[in-house]
Design goal:
- The complex is a heterodimer of chains A (426) and B (316).
- Helices cover 46% and strands 13% of the residues of chain A.
- Chain A is an alpha/beta fold.
- Chain B is mainly alpha-helical and 316 residues long.
- A two-stranded antiparallel sheet of chain B has the order 1-2.
- The longest helix of chain B is centred in the N-terminal third of the chain and has 60 residues.
- Classes of the chains: A alpha/beta (426), B mainly alpha (316).
- The interface between A and B is medium-sized, with 25 and 33 residues.
């Protein structure tokens, strides 16, 4: 009995020793001593298409044994991704080298000193032939903090069997929908009305298209004002008309896609993922499923649709920043972006790729989407974006409860509080 | 003057033996007492490190303007974070939701738990099997159970949703709160039942029999004998469950993430701390939750005479 427990204890000691030795070896691996390639960890959203895995493998190979990139998947939800990164960066975790950031986090990460600015030749290579609004999302206080990888924006999708010419403005679109309803035809306008980031995106698009902005350029105060009231009026008009989907208040992008495929809608404001999906799910409707530029607020002034996407940044606590910058540039280079666009379905940020014939079969709308991306609007850039956005989405959703003038006033005061870290988020 | 001096002498005389006694005690037992403190010290130090320090730090943080993403803008602001929380409709809404969930779930659990306890108490055969099987829901990890509830209530994938006309109760405020209460009740009724069962076994069987001989009905025996004798056990069970229910987090986090105005105060605190990274406001919310929990405990212990765990006053 006694001897047995001693043996168990001995075994535990051996195991513990082995574990310590193993962790020591792992530390050597990431520490990158004299010999062998350095391991760079790359934290980005889980990409099931395999495009990221291939990019990581290609870049590792191209580095000629200088570094090995290790792809670490972040949680699926954007909130979960940000929370993990923020928690670890706030604790100066040096095991994160490269990160894929959502376009709304750069100001926060840069202001906190968690990501390194891009300078010199790296910066030049990062900005060459790259979409301007995407560079704007990666810029904070005049410095570039990340390099754009992929991007996205919404188009107007409509059924050509119901409307011959696509509407040019929101007024025309809602009127078309009312007319179709009177004729007893499918008429709904599908848009993201649920209380989440999508509602903020919708409001930001409407506000920018009306010529306004959420914040002053130095991000110190809210601007909003008359353009915001105009934007809110249109959102309310849609929500209180027959054009609104009955479940507008809980709809997100995927609900919109399903409603369109089910045949109840005539219009849909959504990202290009709806196109291959329609092709696969409803071949008959696919023949009449067309796209057009996002409707404008004022006729003759094209809409400024909110831009989305991923920027790649280097952690301030990385032990190998020089190599990390090079690896980041490789991960978003021409070949990897093209593969990401074709295999992964995410539009590229390198402008000239939009005229690459290899892109055309998957992106028949490449010209329209490029025009929209070059004209896109950026969500308010502030380190306190999360709070600002949550306040906005709670004020514009449910959209039927908007009261344009007073909602605008409330938004100004809540954003003011948020910018001074005074307010609560719901 | 004389009276003064007399009282002085008296008090001195009174004090003298006391001092002497204390001295005598210290002579005899000082070493022992010191040993006692030494033996306690590790536990005291651990308790201070894991509870007192975090609580004190949270109080300190709640007095600061402190956003994690603005490390250079940290500023002492006194009680203004509390002002911001208490003047915010979000706090009062979350508090109302929390109270509704607490009151309804604890009330339903008490009734169901009592029934279950009576059943277990009267079971003649397979007593251990019955008790163990009743505990199964309590043994399941809350998050896992919450996920199964979420799937069950999701239209087109869930059997419960299908049963109720393919509805989506989790996207309506009232219905979602109902689902949350249901999940809570399902999970913690067994715990309530076990606590009540312990109280039930304290009720002497002869007393019941005597009342029966005197012609008391089953209901009279339950309300006049069983309940009064079980009062201490019931109050302890209610205290535990109320404190637990007030701090509800995991069920809501999985079922609705606090969407559609279904967030409890703990969810509000979590969102402000971990989403907004506002350490000041978030800590103020945490401290307010702490105060609410303390009030509940004081009301139960002082107001209803619940025996605090570890004291003997409740046992009669």
């Amino acid at each position: 009995m006694r001897a047995g427990s001693d043996r168990v204890r001995q075994r535990i000691a051996v195991l513990a020793g082995a574990a310590i030795a193993a962790s020591g070896m792992a530390a050597c691996g990431t520490g990158g001593g004299g010999s062998g390639p350095v391991t760079l960890t790359y934290y980005i959203y889980p990409d099931t298409s395999g495009a990221t895995n291939q990019a990581v493998a290609t870049c590792t190979k191209q580095s000629h044994h200088r570094y090995t990139i290790s792809y670490q998947q972040l949680p699926t939800s954007a909130d979960g991704q940000r929370q993990q990164l923020v928690r670890r960066l706030a604790a100066h975790d040096n095991t994160i080298d490269i990160m894929g950031l959502d376009v709304t986090w750069e100001a926060e990460f840069a202001q906190a000193g968690w990501i390194l600015p891009w300078t010199g030749a790296n910066k030049e290579q990062a900005t060459r032939d790259t979409l301007k609004p995407m560079l704007d999302t990666a810029t904070w206080k005049g410095k570039l903090y990340a390099v754009p990888d992929n991007t996205n924006t919404q188009l107007l999708w409509y059924r050509s069997d119901l409307v011959k010419t696509p509407p040019r403005t929101w007024t025309e679109m809602i009127n078309d929908s009312i007319r179709l309803a009177r004729q007893g035809k499918p008429h709904l306008i599908e848009i993201q009305g649920a209380q989440y980031e999508g509602a903020t995106v919708w409001f930001n698009t409407m506000l920018a298209s009306a010529g306004g902005s959420v914040l002053t350029p130095d991000a110190s105060h809210p601007t909003l004002g008359k353009p915001a009231v105009t934007a809110l009026k249109i959102m309310k008009r849609l929500a209180t008309s027959v054009a609104a989907d009955p479940s507008l208040d809980v709809q997100q992008e995927n609900d919109n896609r399903l409603a369109m495929e089910a045949g109840t809608a005539a219009f849909e404001l959504n990202y290009p993922f709806v196109y291959p999906s329609m092709k696969a799910d409803n071949a008959k409707m696919f023949k009449v499923f067309k796209w057009a530029p996002y409707p404008a607020v004022t006729l003759g002034q094209p809409a400024h649709v909110t831009i989305g996407g991923i920027d790649i940044a280097v952690s301030s606590y990385s032990l190998h920043p020089k190599l990390a910058f090079q690896a980041a540039l490789c991960l978003r280079d021409r070949a990897n972006q093209l593969r990401g666009a074709i295999v992964g379905g995410v539009p590229p940020t390198i402008i000239s790729l939009y005229s690459d014939p290899k892109l055309f079969p998957n992106y028949p709308f490449h010209a329209d989407i490029l025009k929209e991306l070059e004209n896109a609007s950026v969500r308010p850039k502030t380190p306190l974006y999360q709070v600002v956005s949550i306040n906005i989405s709670h004020l514009v959703s449910p959209p039927a409860s908007i009261r344009p003038a007073s909602t605008e006033k409330k938004m100004v005061s809540q954003i003011n509080d948020a910018l001074q870290s005074k307010g609560l988020i719901p | 003057m004389s009276t003064e001096s007399r009282t002085a002498t008296i008090s001195a005389a009174q004090q003298a033996p006391a001092t002497r006694r204390r001295q005598r005690l210290s002579e005899g037992a000082r070493a022992e007492r010191r040993l006692g403190w030494l033996l306690c010290a590790p536990a005291v130090i651990v308790m201070i490190a894991v509870t007192a320090y975090p609580i004190a730090y949270a109080v300190y943080l709640s007095l600061e303007r402190y956003n994690l993403e603005l490390p250079n803008a940290v500023k002492f602001v006194g009680l203004s974070n509390y002002g911001a929380v208490l003047s915010s409709p979000y706090w009062w809404h979350a508090l109302a939701v929390t109270l509704i969930i607490t009151i309804f779930s604890v009330a339903i659990e008490l009734v169901l738990g009592m029934l279950l306890a009576l059943l277990m108490h009267r079971t003649l055969f397979g007593r251990n099997t019955v008790r163990t099987s009743a505990l199964i829901p309590y043994g399941i990890v809350t998050v896992a159970a919450a996920y199964s509830w979420q799937f069950a209530w999701t239209p087109s994938t869930g059997y419960l949703s299908a049963l109720f006309g393919n509805g989506a109760p989790l996207s309506h405020t009232g219905q979602a709160i109902g689902v949350i209460i249901l999940a809570e009740v399902w999970k913690t009724t067994p715990f309530m039942a076990l606590l009540l069962l312990a109280g039930l076994s304290l009720v002497p069987e002869d007393l019941q029999r005597a009342a029966k001989v005197d012609g008391a009905t089953a209901w009279q025996r339950f309300t006049r004998i069983t309940l009064p004798l079980m009062k201490p056990a019931i109050l302890v069970a209610l205290l535990f469950r109320t404190l637990d229910a007030f701090r509800i987090f995991d069920n809501i986090y999985i079922l609705t993430k606090g969407g559609n105005n279904t967030g409890s105060v703990s969810i509000l605190g979590y969102d402000n701390l971990f989403s907004a990274l506002n350490l000041g406001i978030g800590s103020a919310i945490s401290i307010l939750i702490f105060i609410c929990v303390a009030i509940i405990a004081v009301v139960f212990i002082k107001g209803f005479g619940t025996a605090a765990p570890g004291t003997d006053t409740g046992r009669r």
